Amino acid sequence: MSTSEMTLDLRPVDEVTITILVDNVFDSLLASTGPARRAAMAKIGRVPAPHYGEGSTTPGLRAEHGFAALVTVRTGAATSTVLLDTGISPDGMISNADLLGVDLALIEAVILSHGHFDHTAGLGALAARRQEVSAGGLPLLLHPHAWSRRRSTNREGIARDLPTLSRAAVESLGYAIVERSEATLLADEQILVTGEIDRTTWFERGVPRHEAYRDGQWVADPLLLDDQAIAIHLRGRGLVVLTGCGHAGVINTVRQAFRLAGVGHLHALLGGFHLSGPAFEPVIEPTVEALRDLAPEVLVPAHCTGWAAQHRLASEFPAAFIPNAVGTTFTLTGL
Known about the structure:
Strand content: 25-35%
Number of strands: 20
Structural class: alpha+beta
Strand order of the largest sheet: 2-20-1-5-6-7-8-11
Oligomer: single chain
């Protein structure tokens, strides 16, 4: 039986809290709304600035083309916390976490949505911080293809190599590496990592002109099979699905989560939907059409979704749509 045909015993939780540590946007004027609570400037930490009379200033949070989200599930009084991705700069995630007062010692595992550098660059700084507050051996869950050497080629045929994760270097940081292409349950079987996602829609076909170096040559790698997401069963409401880039397609991803969890209702969909730019904007309308049937009650497109897709989603799902921003905490409560 393939992983996609299995139903895993995903335990429902009473509450899910997702704090965005890295994303493409920071807006200190965004108002809190629904389950989203924004990082108030008055509550963000201060940094030295001697040219002010007070000797310090509130810098706001760093926005960068990357993604990282801290995820905590609660059942009764018991909580578990994991981290999905670590951003594009070595220090951006740590800087934002410090300014927000996030306790990184609570992280029980790190999950990589895939191996691209805009999701993996903060691993070193996190390891250094964890050595200050905890012994090493923090589990790092990833797909075996996350180590792939990759490049992208533009329309003119010019190739650009992408930074490649080094297994030896990551091991030297003290992580306990867990390679899996199959689905995994974490946090006392309360968090589902989808593993490799089946491609079932006609319109989600991956990334054109994306290549991987395998067996001594560059080969087409449009599907990025290491792409995975996490899903949580929120008691009485349905699934909460969080993607990194959604290279597998957000509809494929949700359908995979449904199959694995045996849950057929989508309560919330958050993360990168990868609908930006000429190659992906034709995918916006079929994605919107499929999302109509899924009817999410909370919809938070982030990171690589793109402005055109965000505006379209906002107009189609006005009651569910919430703009994302670094420092936002989404608290989703079950029934």
